[in-house]
Amino acid sequence: MERSPGEGPSPSPMDQPSAPSDPTDQPPAAHAKPDPGSGGQPAGPGAAGEALAVLTSFGRRLLVLIPVYLAGAVGLSVGFVLFGLALYLGWRRVRDEKERSLRAARQLLDDEEQLTAKTLYMSHRELPAWVSFPDVEKAEWLNKIVAQVWPFLGQYMEKLLAETVAPAVRGSNPHLQTFTFTRVELGEKPLRIIGVKVHPGQRKEQILLDLNISYVGDVQIDVEVKKYFCKAGVKGMQLHGVLRVILEPLIGDLPFVGAVSMFFIRRPTLDINWTGMTNLLDIPGLSSLSDTMIMDSIAAFLVLPNRLLVPLVPDLQDVAQLRSPLPRGIIRIHLLAARGLSSKDKYVKGLIEGKSDPYALVRLGTQTFCSRVIDEELNPQWGETYEVMVHEVPGQEIEVEVFDKDPDKDDFLGRMKLDVGKVLQASVLDDWFPLQGGQGQVHLRLEWLSLLSDAEKLEQVLQWNRGVSSRPEPPSAAILVVYLDRAQDLPMVTSELYPPQLKKGNKEPNPMVQLSIQDVTQESKAVYSTNCPVWEEAFRFFLQDPQSQEVDVQVKDDSRALTLGALTLPLARLLTAPELILDQWFQLSSSGPNSRLYMKLVMRILYLDSSEICFPTVPGCPGAWDVDSENPQRGSSVDAPPRPCHTTADSQFGTEHVLRIHVLEAQDLIAKDRFLGGLVKGKSDPYVKLKLAGRSFRSHVVREDLNPRWNEVFEVIVTSVPGQELEVEVFDKDLDKDDFLGRCKVHLTTVLNSGFLDEWLTLEDVPSGRLHLRLERLTPRPTAAELEEVLQVNSLIQTQKSAELAAALLSIYMERAEDLPLRKGTKHPSPYATLTVGDSSHKTKTISQTSAPVWDESASFLIRKPHTESLELQVRGEGTGVLGSLSLPLSELLVADQLCLDRWFTLSSGQGQVLLRAQLGILVSQHSGVEAHSHSYSHSSSSLSEEPELSGGPPHITSSAPELRQRLTHVDSPLEAPAGPLGQVKLTLWYYSEERKLVSIVHGCRSLRQNGRDPPDPYVSLLLLPDKNRGTKRRTSQKKRTLSPEFNERFEWELPLDEAQRRKLDVSVKSNSSFMSRERELLGKVQLDLAETDLSQGVARWYDLMDDKDKGSS
């Protein structure tokens, strides 16, 4: 934590206030400014709050005296009171010490830097300049482990080379049948890891590490071909570079990591000392050539986009996607010009100075492009465009090297490097970059192209590309990634299949694949001696016009002389596929009858949001940039890059699902309760514990029952990460330690793929018992058309023991903020953000000392009432309080396109903005037992018996859902009859046959009668006649001073259907007469004969209220 150069000198001790008066040590209330409009008069609500606080404090002190009073009333000694008080004080002391220790440890783990500063110095003072907290950490402990393992690694390498590599080399060529490794020693100097950097918050499903490795070893490997008396080898080697290690995917089972990917972000430096016959490689000219060839071999194996993937679990899905994931984006590099280059050409032995013949090399990882040569020019203008795929942000760099073309060796003119993360942040960079190692500048225009799965954007991209001048290749509109998996039943190689000049017998083929799009062809590796090869390779293509292009696939024998099968696929098929993905078997033509190829093709549209930038054009030449112009334009300055208009969330954002877990019942549980010292055998008091995705749930306890029925629903947000399991345990509730009644596990792969699971699961580790679970995957839908039906379905299937069911899933991507207020007017804050919806909240990481933090974090929330809930966001500074806040009603998302808002939001403080993406998805249940059909009709008291006929046939019942499928109808209509003189009440009546319950939902009232000066305080009372006892009486909460209250409360009665149809439901709307009186004022009532009510419909209806003397239902 070093002091920035821009800060002024620290104030002298004389200028600083003393410790007692330091305002930073005062509570926040000391800094609060009085309201200028208050006039010094206390506010009414504040005075009421103080009075309530005094009464509460007085009540607590009275509670302390209750044990003393009870002891005196019973006649106990004061010693009992003192003994109890001593026990309480001792317990409180131990409890406070534990909480204090836990708080201190948590504070140390949360922010070691801030705690160190507070511990060593006075608060808010800076540490010395030589104290820092680097993000690259040393790993000496890891080096010690490597040093101890190094000799055993040498033994493994010797065994591997002797038993695996040497036989493979001898079998590859008959001239190498006497090839052997005569010496394999890794030496005594192990590989060292200079530093480790962890990149937090990239993606939830991965851990990303950068290892700065350095190997200066005394390795010695000697080989010999005895037949030719040839000896060669390596003695000593150096390798330096940054190795990126990705642990992905994270899974919910041991070893918690599905695979390890390793690669070099940039080409490492390599130096090899040859021995024996290979000493010839040290000849000048051959030395650089050999090192370059070997470095190219390593780059083709371990430098991006190539990766080394090591699976850690069997049957890992999407191996090809892990080995070759989709790029993060595409950068379009416009190499425009250079100026002020140095002169390298000399004539007449240096007496006459000429100019240079410059050309440029543009490199990103293994992607390299070379410009044309401009003869005799120190200010060349190239005007060329290249497109490169970006795989890792941060990490990869764009490198431009400028050379002077000469007949012998080209002269170096300069180099520039730029991290691709800056292009991602700015979207467009257009500037002159200075050349390092030389003189002059190079003019580049860099554009970040996002990868979209929206085919509707293609026409817009094609139209823009038609006006862009690009050479040597036209601009691309999309990319295609082909994951080549496997083939089946390829034809055998026979003599008849070969041309006459080739004579071969029958054998299994050595298949390889050629993929071509126009004039670009890529080849897979050859798989030997099989007609069912497995490749698991990926290929990437740039597409200029996907609507007219096609991919040609040729499966051939490794000699390329025999075609085993062919396939031509128009890319227009992908444009109509979901998410622009085809993942299937393809039948091969000109092949066997059952020969087919399995591929996954993924297309992504390359989109540059033109609303973020202003594209300069030259009249008569659309899209051409004036390379001589130096006028700054919007989006063309490195010092002040344009800010993006939209977020750049990764492909995993918004892909979560909601798993609805319905714990129904259990059978044949073991009895754990014992009485009278174990002589009398009782039952058990079972409850269920659930664990999934880092969260735990617990059901209620069912007393004295070995076949309990819980009927509770729990919901949890899950991802598609493989290996997740739902852990279920059943316990018997006891006073001391709960007894174990069994456990079971459910693999979520089946549920996530099929969407539904309803099974009895046998409990493990116990003699008997089984548990009935119902699991359903809910996939969010970006449309609000079904929201009302979802809310009503949730109200019908809601159980009394469960929390309110979620109707939607809210996904938030918090990218960045800008222009946050400075701390004390001059210092940058250390901001973090808190996102809150209801009782759930998420806190982002803290970004140290900046007013423009970049978080790149996402969070998800379950939403139960999208119409009324809101997202509350606060940006706070570490130790400085609130920097700004934002309240986003979710009702704004319901009217947005695709239920998504992606833009900048201004904070309420008036200073600062945040860039976030809020996306809402409606959770539609397909297995709720209620089938939704939109149907509207009106209903009044005069037309209750004349119920309109429902459209369509009988309810559709599927075999996969054994529960009763009912109709859900909507009755809100503009044609509804007006309310009666006493008002109306809205009810839903439904008989849940599976649970054997009568369900009533009181939605609300409207147009109630007002008898006095003030509106009533209404509530609804329900009574199931003819019983008038408390067992059948239900009542809603009370609403204050309203004629149209909304309740939305659910009530249940357990009784058979035939008994329910013999009952009448008495519904009374009442109001409290006064605060001191127990008298209730009847506002109106209605009596419903359940025998005349269709309890299978689950319909919400308005009923007219009547006086108490009226009879019948309305």
Automatic annotation (TrEMBL):
Region (Disordered): 1-48, 934-960
Organism the protein comes from: Pan troglodytes (Chimpanzee)
Subunit relationships: Interacts with ESYT2 and ESYT3. Interacts with ADGRD1; inhibiting the G-protein-coupled receptor activity of ADGRD1. Interaction with ADGRD1 is abolished when cytosolic calcium increases, relieving ADGRD1 G-protein-coupled receptor activity. Interacts (phosphorylated form) with SLC2A4.
UniProt biased composition (Low complexity): 935-956
Family (UniProt): Belongs to the extended synaptotagmin family.
Gene that this sequence comes from: ESYT1
Protein name (Swiss-Prot/TrEMBL): Extended synaptotagmin-1
One Gene Ontology cellular component: endoplasmic reticulum membrane
Primary localisation category: membrane
Record-annotated SMP-LTD domain positions: 135-313
The UniProt record lists the keyword Nuclease: no
GO biological process, one term: lipid transport
Gly residues: bias regions: 37-47
Domain C2: 312-433, 454-590, 640-761, 787-909, 981-1103
Keywords: Acetylation, Calcium, Cell membrane, Endoplasmic reticulum, Lipid transport, Lipid-binding, Membrane, Metal-binding, Phosphoprotein, Repeat, Transmembrane, Transmembrane helix, Transport
Localization of this protein: Cell membrane; Endoplasmic reticulum membrane
Residue spans crossing the bilayer: 62-91, 245-265
